[in-house]
Amino acid sequence: MHFTSKELELRERIITALHSSLSLPLVLEATRAPLLELTPADHMGLCVMTPGPPLDFQWLVPGHRLTLLDEYPRWADSDFVRGPIFAQPNVVLRDTQMLPRRALEASALYRRSQELDLRLEHVMAVLLPAKETLLGAFTLYRDQRVEFSEHDAALLTSLTPHLTNALRNCRDMQAARSGARLLEELYNRPDAGFLVVLPPSHELLRSERAKVLLDKWFTPSDLHASGIPGMLLERLNALARMHPDERLKHNPLVALRGETYLVVRFIELPQPEGPAQWALSINEVPMSIPLPQHMRQQLTPRQVDIAQGILRNWSNEQIAEHLKLSEDTVKTHVRDIFGRLKVDNRADFLYQASHLNRPI
């Protein structure tokens, strides 16, 4: 969909704001003004959830507090937004697509908003599955009886990958708000190796786990003069030059050797001044990866069978032979699976599945 120059300018400001901090409240506050102007809307909120049961949630609302959300636990079971967005993760939905106007006005949440003189007349929302243990429901509200349009939804859709990325990065790093604590947190994590690098090639930190993994995966001839594998520096410096939209397509880096994948995720660390440093999260993932429940719920039974074949690193021909299908049928299913799960290719699917099974 075509965006105006003003909309593109606001979108750039929003993306910059989403990468401005690793504190989720600060990110939302920085994002608030340009995002409410872009859509436009009167209020925004992010409900951060840990899947249950019970479903644990926390509302983060920049700007003026919405008293209705302070009471949300009381009204959560009658929230007409939650069901539709959970049924279609990553899809921006307007209230007109969720229920008829008469049903909206009869809902407990709408009636309570009127009692509190909030006048929340229209809503647009999207579920952001950051990982299997972390979900975000991002919601925009309008006070006036002016429906959100298809164009408004397209604008928000263009930002959802960046919203998801910000949610995941901020929650991964929430225990490390300052630079010193961040390095300590990265260094002490037992489940992943970390490098911290100042581009183009200055290494600031290497955790013990990173030393083990890099020694295992790379030979001395693979190393740059800095001691960092050349392929990692090449990807890092390419990412540093890219627009954030392009970064999403090229992050992470996935390599295969034998029965194991090496997955490297590149995280830009906000700096108050000076050039940005990057954390490289390094993890091994076995070739045979379980299909996460979140993905399974979005697929048909036949697509589940084929997805499991992909996770075993089988070719389309091998999957077809195993399931007694034609190779063309398998190709069609694979394309539909990637579309439903919003992944770009096999490497991206393998990474996303491993990430949901074991966040890295």
UniProtKB/TrEMBL annotation:
Keyword Cytoplasm: no
Alphabetized SUPFAM superfamilies for the sequence: C-terminal effector domain of the bipartite response regulators (SSF46894), GAF domain-like (SSF55781)
Domain HTH luxR-type residues, every copy: 292-357
Xref: PROSITE patterns: HTH_LUXR_2
One GO BP: regulation of DNA-templated transcription
Superkingdom in the source lineage: Bacteria
Record InterPro entries: GAF-like_dom_sf, Sig_transdc_resp-reg_C-effctor, Tscrpt_reg_LuxR_C, WH-like_DNA-bd_sf
Pfam families: GerE
Keyword Transport annotated: no
Keywords of the record: DNA-binding, Transcription, Transcription regulation
MF annotations from Gene Ontology: DNA binding
SMART domains in alphabetical order: HTH_LUXR (SM00421)
Listed name of the protein: Regulatory protein, luxR family
